[in-house]
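[09:14] KT: can someone run the structure on this one? pasting the chain below
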Amino acid sequence: MSTTFLAPRLVDYWLTVAKRTWKGTVVSSFVVPFLYIVAMGVLLGGFVHAGPAKLDGATSYLAFVAPGMVAAQSMTTVFGEVTYPVMGMIKWHRVYYSMIATPLSVRDVVLAQLGFIAFRVGLVAAVFMSVMGAFGVFSSVWGVLVAWLVQVLIGIAFAAPIFGFSAGLKDESAFSLIFRLGMIPLFLFSGAFFPVSNLGPALEWFARLTPLWHGVDLTRMLVLGNLDGTTALVHVGYLLGLACLGTWWAVHRLTRRLIT
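[09:31] RB: done, structure tokens below
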């Protein structure tokens, strides 16, 4: 593998992709966050009467659910970026083959695409948090800024291993399982909509092992100003480790698919 880092040379390519596809993501990136906040936080939240002791320190259901939804949105954004698009660039359009026919290595290709995904997640999270700000959810500016960086970390922590999984598939039939048995259960049982302590001991233990729970809990602590340093370091270490291992696996799997 080449030791030269050439991933930045793909910036023009991914900017072109963004310019040609941004209209198809307007609703999911800009309209959906507002609808989520209004429907789940304001309307449904009006029927939830619970104090901070039952809402992980949140003073209202809106304050509880909004940080969870932005973390969940960061995850769901990623699933659409590293499943069918990765398959398409290997099997249908064969773009990856043209990329590695240049001095670019597989590592450069993977890192450049993950960089684009980080940009997408960051943009979506910024819009979501802007909507949250209008409802007075935030407790401090610094907490919001760090929480925004956490969304990028959540995105890469999911994108890298799913990229690796997609890179080794021969066809797209397994993607339905990823969405149904992976994304949806994580979305529902991550603590985004209710405290995981309501699940019972066994399911609560399992939920705390999932990456989205770590992202949700860290985001909520930062947004609400209830940061616990030790717990936050565990969350960051978990997500960062998953991102690093996933990136290595993605490079390994794509190299085997394209070259060996």
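[09:33] KT: thanks! The CA atoms of residues 145 and 222 lie 9 Å apart.
[09:34] RB: yep, looked fine to me
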